[in-house]
Amino acid sequence: MPDLAIRADLTQERLTRLNFLLSRECGPAFLQAFVRNVAEIFAADSVFVARIDATNTRMRTLAVASNGDVADNYCYGLAGTPCAETMEAGATVYEDNVAAHFPKDFILSEAGTQAYVGLPLFNGAQTVGIVAATFKRAIDLGDDLLSVFNHYRRRLTGVMLAQETGDRAALAIKGTSDGILDWCLDTDQIYISPRGRELLGYQPREYTAPSDHFLALIHVDDRPRFSSALAAHLKSGRTFDLSIRLKVVGGQHRWFRIRGEAVRTPEGDATRMVGAMTDIHDLVEARQQATEASRAKSKFLATMSHEIRTPMNGVLGMSSLLASTDLEPSQREMVNLIEASGNALLGILNDILDLANIESGRFEIEPGEYNPAEVLRAVAGPYRMKAMEKGLNLHLEIDPCAEMTATGDPDRLRQILSNLLSNAVKFTDRGDIRVRCLVHQKADGHHDLVFEVGDTGIGMDSELIARAFMPFSQGESAMARKVGGTGLGLAIAKKLAELMGGDIGVESAPGAGSIFTVTLPADAADKRETAAE
């Protein structure tokens, strides 16, 4: 009994000393201090902490103390070693003649190892590492050493996993093209990663400074947006993601995208703001150039459409006057051909002008009240005659509820339906065309108008469907040459529907025809808002 009491006192004394020596250590330095001090206190020839791979076949040391000093790390195969037994059976103690129990581990005999003490480290139910000590002499302190290992087991495991996570984070920061920002709200210090400083034109090194130093880099015009977005995120958790201009070396401003998220306490108070900064200046400039080019193109199209339409109206006017005079049959045929061709060209010019105005933002919707059923009947009338000329039947199905007063732009609705009916007649050689007008009531009590234009024509495959509403896009080239057109009709119809708060979709298959569905709100936006209030 006295011997046991003396041993317990000695173990506690060693543990107290070790606690004192390690009290100020943290992170990787803790691992190195631990192995060095344990080796000194217990006079061990070697003490190490190692990470085990997922297959439990190899280990990689994280800290090694050998011959009284910290040594280099190494990798080691576990098969046939006392470490393998530790991983399988748990705490392992060989106080003498350990090499005889593991004849395949030739390093034990070469190093003259006599004793071994090891303990596995767990993360939940998974074995993730090992802490062990070896001696070139027989020992009688195996249990004491295990007590120390067990006392520090959780901390060793936590530091090991934290170091691994930190290594991954460091590699990610080093490998990313983004700069990392870490703003401590309590101390008002902001950390900028080396890559972040490099994006700003400075030397790539870590940098920590008061937040004012970074905020001063923000363009004066962008500071209100930044402050507003930051306040909204800290208060309500709204996404913090915005593009601002930052001053770089040389005094120029470049566009950056800043994304971040607050780190909060369990009570919800923000303590840090962590995020990334991405240089998007070239992208913004390219987008601005593309926007300017698009506007220039739209302006050119609009100008040319006006310039060409003026003489075209003169041609059509003169041909109409010429047609009212006495002409021979051959002459009248030529005049009619001139007038038909002029009207066709005028329709193309109108489509180009409409598309140019829509893309340039000069196109306006003029809301008014109309009867959807009456609009559909008026539009379908002329196309019924064209369908009959091709031997097609055109059927109208109108929901009785569509005999209502809807709010929208009836002229643009006529343009949309006219484009769809024109395509249906052009691309259908046999069968029929069905047009439906329906009213759907939504969950909020408001109504949508649904127009369906279906045909039994050539149909479209998935590739054609994907670009059906793109400008200047047409179907199969032979059919396109046959029926003519610019490929602008569906593009204009799509944009008009979107401007009216609706959309157009299509279902089709090759040889099975197509069904175009137009969905438009039947109630004006201001009426909806009034009803909601």
Account of the protein in words:
Mean pLDDT is 81; it is low at 475-485 and 525-533. Strands 1, 2, 3, 4, 5, 6 and 7 form a 7-stranded antiparallel beta sheet that branches. A 6-stranded antiparallel beta sheet has the order 10-9-8-13-12-11, with helices on both faces. A 5-stranded mixed beta sheet has the order 15-17-18-20-19, with helices on one face. α1 packs across α6. Helices cover 47% and strands 25% of the residues. A hairpin with a 5-residue loop joins β1 and β2 (58-66). With 533 residues, it is α+β, with helices and mostly antiparallel strands. The chain has helices at 2-22, 28-41, 82-89, 98-101, 106-111, 142-151, 153-175, 194-199, 211-215, 223-236, 281-323, 329-360, 372-389, 410-426, 462-466, 477-483, 489-499, 525-532, and strands at 46-52, 58-66, 69-71, 75-77, 92-94, 115-123, 126-135, 179-184, 189-192, 207-210, 240-247, 253-264, 270-279, 368-370, 393-398, 406-408, 432-441, 447-455, 503-508, 514-521.
Radius of gyration: 40 Å
Mean pLDDT across every amino acid position: 81
| Fraction in beta strands | 15-25%
Shape: elongated
User: How many helices in DSSP terms?
Assistant: 18
Largest sheet, if any?
7 strands, antiparallel
- Distance N to C terminus: 86 Å
Number of strands: 20
Helicity, as a percent range: 40-55%
Q: Find the structural class using helix and strand composition.
A: alpha+beta
pLDDT < 50 stretches: 475-485, 525-533
